[in-house]
Amino acid sequence: MREKAERTIRAYYAAFNRQDLDGFLDLLADDVVHDINQGKREKGKPAFRRFLKRMNELYRETVVDLVVMASADGRRAAAEFTIRGTYLKSDKGLPPASGQAYVLPVGAFFALKRGKVARVSNHYNLNDWLAQVAKPARGTKKRR
Fold it and tell me: What is the DSSP letter of 1?
């Protein structure tokens, strides 16, 4: 069961890296719970789809250095990785986007049921990200 859970989480991040929305959503339980870093809890695939579409519009991100761990029964898993990203379009309540690059260590925790992701909680240092995007990308001027 551990190996199956680890394969599911690896497939989840492979679909993320390909920006394969349908492949990504196929790995989720219909009633998936998504605990957004420093944000609210969302439930269900439709909410997750909206979240992913918004994120893909505002950010370009790739998961690298992925390490996956799972419990022996395959009901819980965790992942540690690095996000390499570009801030493409300004997000509400956050600094203006100008193509700033960022690199963040991230931890994610999962609950799985019947081979699907039933819950995912993502954790990263928001203050680190804010500091990285506070400066405009090279070749752009900071707005006053």
Answer: -
* Closest listed residue to residue 12, CA positions, set 56, 2, 29, 1: 29
Chain mean pLDDT for the chain = 94
- Report yes or no: 18 and 10 within 8 Å, Cβ to Cβ: no
Label residue 140 by pLDDT band (50, 70, 90).
Answer: low
Identify the weakest region by mean pLDDT among 60-64, 67-71, 90-94.
Answer: 90-94
Write out pLDDT tens, residues 8-56: 999 999 999 999 999 999 999 999 999 999 889 999 999 999 999 999 9
In angstroms and rounded to an integer, the radius of gyration of the C-alpha atoms of the chain is 16
The CATH code of domain 2-133 reads 3.10.450.50
CA-CA distance, 55 to 66, in Å (whole number)?
Answer: 20
Sheet order of strands, 41-43 included? 41-43, 28-35, 116-124, 100-113, 76-87, 59-70
d(CA 112, CA 28): 9
**Whole-number Cα distances in Å, 83 to 65, 92, 105, 138:** 9, 21, 6, 20
